[in-house]
Amino acid sequence: MESNERDLLQAIADTTTDALIAINQEGKVIEWNRAAERIFGFSAKEMLGSSLNMVIPERYRTAHDTGLERVNGGGDRHVIGQAVRLAGKRKDGSEFPLELTVSAWQQDGRNFYGGIIRDVSDRVRMEEELKSSEERVRSIMEAANDAIILADATGCIVSWNAAAARIFGHAAENVIGQPLTVVIPEKFRSAHDEGIRRVASGGARHVIGDTVELSGLHSNGSLIPVELSLSTWEIGGERFFGGIIRDISERKQNEERLRKQQKQLKSRARSLKRLNEEVRTKNEQLQALSNKLAKYLSRQVYKNIFEGKSDVRIESYRKKLTIFFSDIQGFTELTDRVESEVLTGALNKYLNEMSKIALDHGGTIDKYIGDAIMIFFGDPETLGEQEDAIACVKMAIEMRKKLIEMRREWDVLGVSTPLRVRMGINTGFCTVGNFGSEERLDYTIVGGAVNLASRLESAADADGILISSDTFSLVKDEVVCKPEREITVKGIAYPVKTYSVVDLIETLQKEKEHIEARLKGFNLKIDFDKLNYTDKLYAREMLLKAMAKLEPAPDEADSPD
Questions:
Q1: Segment 324-337, tens digit of pLDDT
Q2: Lower CB density within 10 Å: C or N end of the chain?
Q3: DSSP percent split of the chain into helix, strand, coil, nearest 5
Q4: What CATH number matches the domain at 3-123, 3.30.450.20, 3.40.50.1010, 2.40.30.30, 3.40.50.720?
Q5: Are 399 and 391 in contact, with CB atoms under 8 Å apart?
Q6: Common-topology check for domains 144-251 and 312-508
Q7: DSSP state, 42?
Q8: What is the pLDDT of residues 274-284, one digit of tens each?
Q9: Are the C-beta atoms of 120 and 99 separated by less than 8 Å?
């Protein structure tokens, strides 16, 4: 190969986002581009001449070696030229999903193999999230009281929930793939077909987005008064229609009875009007009372109850949550030195500001215990275990920053003691739900994970955020933490590793600080602008290891050196 061609191919290999790898027939690496360095974490210097098994998970190595021997011996080449989904192993030992396309060639009587490798971690995650979303949607559809029917651009049914089967009398297996006209009275079918064709061709959408009353056709031939809400969308260039259909037979019967009653009650119209006014007044009173009661419930619990998503009954369940505790340092002593009116105003101001931050981050405020606050993430609403934990830590960081502003406000109110707060965060399984009696319920959480969060708060330094190792494992990719001492907790047989929260990685990156320090036995220089993302992760790992070793031993405090 001429030099220019070789240089061109090398330039292409170095600029592509996919890993380009070549091995000889012994399985030794002979080509390793920059994308391969980025994806696997191994440099070309480390890999060239090394076995490809270095980036293959151990459980797959035997199959790889066997396949290589088979192909070298002229056997089946079923993977050559095919895109296959496999798992790769990074330098740090972590595994990730990848997509591999293999090619083969011969030169000077020897076999060589090339691979184009794409990191599909994001795709796999999105596929999993999409699957989960589809399952949730399917579950919601099946639990709905209204019929939910989906159809394609030709008007053929593609989805039919349990409520649709109940309302129209057709089992799903009998109508999937059938035209929608199976539930449309004959006199409306022509108009329906014309509407489908018009919308599919981009024409006017007369009923899309509106709620209309129509008649549906039951499997026994009877007509059913229904209320229809119709929507349409496109996926991959293909149009679909969705209809939410409510059986309003009972409503129509009630309306008819009402009309008859109105005819009979014309003479009592004035009394009825007065009664309506009384009902409206009662509704307004109930609404006002509801708004007052909302102050005694967490926002999420109130919403779920009044939207009918939760039943008000004694029940509980196990769930993995992230729990937050905070407490004002020295507050008990403060109550003896500060006038109650001043202290009450300052405390309420503090609780109000902290609560706003908690709600902004999606936290469920469990209770206030004097100056202490208990908050948890993951119920009744959740974004996922990791997302809930990250939201909780972000909330704590924002609270800590807000406290700096509030210290000046406390001074204005006449509270001379500095506002210093300890925070503790833990992630673990709890029992969550409604506890109490039939007369009085309390929505809360209990369990060892709650006790550990409380213990972390007690062990935290003033203005410190102390988290457990379980929480750290979920937030470490977005939050800078430093290892702290282990603590013992009643009910846990082993010491608990703890970490103090420094700040968000994103925040520290934006600051673009330059750090340099020199001591005997200590030389540190960091230029954040020159570090890429991978280098920052490695530097962070090294600094955390160094910080763990820098923790002084108890007898070092007395050393003259």
A1: 999 988 776 666 66
A2: C
A3: 45, 30, 25
A4: 3.30.450.20
A5: no
A6: no
A7: -
A8: 777 777 777 67
A9: yes
